Amino acid sequence: MSPIESVTTALEVPGNVEGGNGAYPGAQSVSRALMLLKCFSDAQPEWNLGDLAQYTGLNKATVHRLLAALESEGFIVRSARTGGYRLGPTLIVLGGCAMRSNDLRTVSRRMLEALAQQTGESTTLEVLAGSEVVILDEVSSRHLLGMSQDVGARLPAHATATGKLLLAHLEPEALALALAAPLQRLAPRTVVSRVALREQLGPLRAAGVAITEDELEAGFVAVAAPVVDHAGDVVAAVSIGGPGSRLVGEALTHAVACTQAAAARISRELGAR
Question: What is the pLDDT of residues 77-95, one digit of tens each?
Fold first, then answer.
């Protein structure tokens, strides 16, 4: 039995399959299991049963069955010390497979390394996931006081150069969904007004580059440029980031040119004209 079948079977009730219209028996069970997995993050790496049930709006019995099925397949583990639930080793294996099989990440790696060498700052490749950006790959700064993010980290799109650039290329309906939740203030210049943010997006799309300062973190400057695939769609963004004390004046101008050039090279590798 596959892991998905195991999760589905654990939650099926004879004569009353969870899953709505019954066209796909067990589909809602799988959806709920995945929803639970998505609740884990760097900020919340561990949950207890009661808090997870309250957060997701599911009853404790359903959450308990889901967690038991996920635990049996190694997607979830329980802490012997606290009894709380954490992500398990199966997800580490699958995450590694996903990263190794990602063509975008493979194609861009060499360019990210070259960009980090040219600018001396940390470089990232990021994609949009709802209202957040996810870091697919990262090359650290050569500076002792460099700023870097972990691969797989998720950041609020409205507070990042990559996020703003990717939001700028969304269709209106997708953009409305991405901006549905309140915009959180993270630093002195974080844009928390949807109206103000939308006003920034048009010029960013036209310029083909985004620069943010003091928006994700005080003192942090980032530059981002879009990555385009063979169909002409913006599928990711390349970014460099570092302290404002270094990324200023000619250094910032140089960083912008290098970032746009790196994004263009990756786009050509993906078949963009």
Answer: 988 888 899 998 888 788 7
